[in-house]
């Protein structure tokens, strides 16, 4: 691989991906830090993450387990595990208001109503002892004070909308009586019940089989198109991202290592980690050959290496990588890469 | 559902038969002679002994004696004591007292145990939580015998002496429900402590589940998250414990009934074992076994009500 001597850029401040219009984005995470107090010490799960989302836009947040992608989402929702979790720094601006500075009751006005979330495993994320109908209707009853009958009628409408066959008959069924895909549809119905402005989908298809995955992604895309909400799609599956996302943020060790418009990433990754991820996707034309895997293991968040967190696994590593943490270098107006040698990576991608 | 209940009740028959046989054998094996014990220090006249041994089949081998007993039971005759009183009439009047005591204790256990458990679970790691845990530990460690006498002395005798008002009767059942309060609390003591701890753990565990996170993310107020979403799930193991505990409470009433002089089956059982009144002992213990079986059946049926994932047929 190409490993020529790089230029030496100065330490910079991570720059959020700005919306194309340049106005205040719908949701902007700015220099967010999240720590967890554990018996072994402080786990720094998120270390200065910034990204933004505009209405009608889909932002894919990509990364492996422990990269901080879900924790960031939970911080936005305000559902981090108290009292272990702490947000020492950062802002989460929603339509210009910093959610982190709101009082709990003001925050509760936003949660579920204006920013909603779909979780990974719908079987464990739905309450096993209540009917799906009551769990959907609850959104209207609690948030809008609707009567039971009206709320149930709305629940049926929603179940129809997410295409659950025989919605009216299934209203009084329990979560365990549905298939995985149908359960995830119910999660989505619950999340979009009050027409939120932002929908966070945290690995919505991970627990499903491949054919169902495609249906759920299609449904999410359709729901988003109809309502014009912004969507944050958290995933570790690059294949899922390509079709639905507008822009992408790649996270590693609690930091953003690359952000870009989605087609740029697929064509020319600018960070060795992204590149590794793309190369590890199985491809038909390479059938029979050994699958590519990024060597090494993810960093221990209790004991982060100095310098670049990816350095121990990086094929582009130079001496300064283990001592100097790379900032998110700006590459053009819509792109950034936290690699001292992004030029080489980019060139390598072209060649 | 109906077939399930029927099957469970049919299954109870061999269990009850086995229980009677076992208890009959154990009392049979006890040393001492029942007729001699009736006469205390004096020697029983030989002709009386001969007649009674014949009348109560005491000269027959064990299995024949048991047969006489169990065939009587199937005809509705639960036997007589050596003084000639019908066992069914003895148990009938005393069972009500024990039932009152056990149910009062069960209600106390449920209210105090679940209440304290919830209180501690919602304040986990804080001073109140630690205090609840410490006091349950004390309650578990101190035997009923001690709590019984201490509370009887403090809340019964001393409180009455110092205020002149009788808050808690210390003996007998003359005051209705009022006279059951203190003995029921003593009887429930250990169970309250265990249930408190169980509730605390169960709720704390439920609060960590994914569906609780979902409820929070849906913007549900905390009261609804805890009181509806979490509690309903956390209740399931508690109901099991409470159901199984009813049997324990009725069986455990022996000591409490003795301390507070309550004329229940516990006291009667103790005396009957002492006097080797075989039909009385077997009758009472079999009744306790029946209560246990029924309580378990009710618990299993309640499961299906609380948890829709459980269905019987």
UniProtKB/TrEMBL annotation, chain A:
One GO BP annotation of this record: peptide transport
One matching Pfam family: oligo_HPY
Keyword ATP-binding: yes
PROSITE patterns reported in the protein's UniProt record: ABC_TRANSPORTER_1, ABC_TRANSPORTER_2
Molecular function per GO: ATP binding; ATP hydrolysis activity
Domain ABC transporter per the UniProt entry, residue ranges: 27-278
Gene3D superfamilies registered for this protein in UniProt: P-loop containing nucleotide triphosphate hydrolases
GO CC terms in record: plasma membrane
SMART domains xrefs: AAA
Xref: InterPro entries: AAA+_ATPase, ABC_Ni/Peptide_Import, ABC_transporter-like_ATP-bd, ABC_transporter-like_CS, Oligopep_ABC_C, P-loop_NTPase
Membrane topology: Peripheral membrane protein
Domain of life the protein comes from: Bacteria
Keyword vocabulary terms for this entry: ATP-binding, Cell membrane, Membrane, Nucleotide-binding, Transport
Similarity section: Belongs to the ABC transporter superfamily.
Protein name per its UniProtKB record: ABC transporter ATP-binding protein
Organism placement in taxonomy: Bacteria, Bacillati, Actinomycetota, Actinomycetes, Streptosporangiales
Automatic annotation (TrEMBL), chain B:
Membrane topology, as annotated: Multi-pass membrane protein
Keywords: Cell membrane, Membrane, Transmembrane, Transmembrane helix, Transport
Subcellular compartments: Cell membrane
Top-level taxon: Bacteria
Organism: Planobispora takensis
Coiled-coil region list: none
One GO process term, biological-process aspect: transmembrane transport
Gene3D superfamilies the UniProt entry points to: MetI-like
Keyword Cell membrane: yes
Keyword Cell membrane on entry: yes
Record family assignment: Belongs to the binding-protein-dependent transport system permease family.
Entry GO terms, CC: plasma membrane
Domain ABC transmembrane type-1 residue range list: 95-303
Regions that span the bilayer: 12-30, 101-122, 134-157, 177-195, 238-260, 280-306
UniProt protein name: Peptide ABC transporter
């Amino acid at each position: 691989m190409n490993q020529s001597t790089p230029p030496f850029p100065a330490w910079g401040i991570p720059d959020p991906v700005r919306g194309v219009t340049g106005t205040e984005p719908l949701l902007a995470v700015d220099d967010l830090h999240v720590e967890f107090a554990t018996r072994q010490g402080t786990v720094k799960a998120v270390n200065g993450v910034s990204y933004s989302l505009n209405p009608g836009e889909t932002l894919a947040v990509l990364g492996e387990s422990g990269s901080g992608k879900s924790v960031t989402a939970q911080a936005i929702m305000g559902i981090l595990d108290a009292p272990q979790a702490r947000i020492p720094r950062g802002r989460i601006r929603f339509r210009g208001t910093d959610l982190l500075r709101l009082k709990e009751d003001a925050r509760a006005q936003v949660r579920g109503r204006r920013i909603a979330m779909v979780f990974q495993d719908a079987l464990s994320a739905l309450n096993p002892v209540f009917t799906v109908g009551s769990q959907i209707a609850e959104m209207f009853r609690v948030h809008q004070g609707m009567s039971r009958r009206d709320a149930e009628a709305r629940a049926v409408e929603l179940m129809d909308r997410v295409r659950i066959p025989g919605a009216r008959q299934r209203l009084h069924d329990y979560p365990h009586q549905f298939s995985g895909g149908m359960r995830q549809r119910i999660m989505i119905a619950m999340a979009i019940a009050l027409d939120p402005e932002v929908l966070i989908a945290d690995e919505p298809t991970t627990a499903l089989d491949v054919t169902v995955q495609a249906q759920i992604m299609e449904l999410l895309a359709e729901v988003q198109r109809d309502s014009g909400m912004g969507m944050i799609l958290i995933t570790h599956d690059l294949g899922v991202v390509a079709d639905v996302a507008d822009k992408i943020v790649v996270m590693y060790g609690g930091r953003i290592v690359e952000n870009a418009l989605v087609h740029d990433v697929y064509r020319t990754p600018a960070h060795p980690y992204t590149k590794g991820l793309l190369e590890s996707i199985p491809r038909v034309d390479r059938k029979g050959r050994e699958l590519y895997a990024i060597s090494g293991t993810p960093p221990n968040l209790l004991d982060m290496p100095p310098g670049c967190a990816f350095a121990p696994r990086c094929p582009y590593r130079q001496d300064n990588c283990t001592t100097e943490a790379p900032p998110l270098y700006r590459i053009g107006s819509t792109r950034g890469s936290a690699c001292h040698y992004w030029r080489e990576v980019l060139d390598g991608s072209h060649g | 559902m109906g077939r399930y209940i029927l099957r469970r009740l049919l299954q109870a028959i061999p269990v009850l038969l086995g229980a009677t046989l076992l208890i009959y054998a154990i009392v049979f094996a006890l040393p001492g002679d029942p007729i001699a014990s009736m006469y205390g220090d004096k020697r029983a006249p030989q002709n009386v002994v001969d007649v009674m041994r014949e009348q109560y089949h005491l000269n027959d081998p064990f299995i024949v004696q048991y047969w006489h007993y169990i065939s009587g039971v199937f005809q509705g005759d639960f036997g007589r004591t050596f003084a000639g009183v019908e066992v069914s009439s003895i148990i009938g009047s005393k069972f009500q007292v024990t039932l009152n005591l056990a149910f009062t204790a069960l209600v106390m256990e449920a209210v105090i145990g679940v209440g304290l458990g919830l209180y501690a679970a919602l304040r986990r790691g804080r001073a109140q939580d630690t205090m609840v845990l410490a006091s349950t530990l004390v309650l578990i460690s101190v035997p009923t015998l001690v709590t019984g006498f201490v509370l009887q002395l403090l809340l019964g005798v001393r409180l009455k002496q110092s205020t002149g008002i009788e808050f808690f009767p210390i003996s007998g059942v003359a005051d209705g429900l009022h006279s059951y309060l203190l003995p029921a609390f003593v009887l429930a003591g250990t169970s309250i402590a265990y249930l408190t701890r169980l509730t605390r753990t169960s709720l704390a565990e439920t609060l960590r589940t994914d569906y609780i996170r979902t409820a929070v993310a849906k913007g549900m107020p905390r009261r609804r998250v805890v009181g509806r979403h979490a509690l309903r799930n956390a209740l399931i193991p508690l109901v099991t414990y409470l159901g199984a505990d009813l049997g324990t409470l009725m069986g455990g009433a022996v000591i409490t009934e003795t301390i507070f002089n309550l004329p229940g089956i516990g006291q009667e059982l103790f005396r009957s074992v002492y006097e080797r009144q075989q039909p009385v002992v077997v009758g009472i213990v079999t009744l306790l076994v029946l209560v246990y079986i029924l309580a378990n059946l009710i618990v299993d049926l309640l499961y299906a009500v609380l948890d829709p994932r459980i269905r019987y047929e």
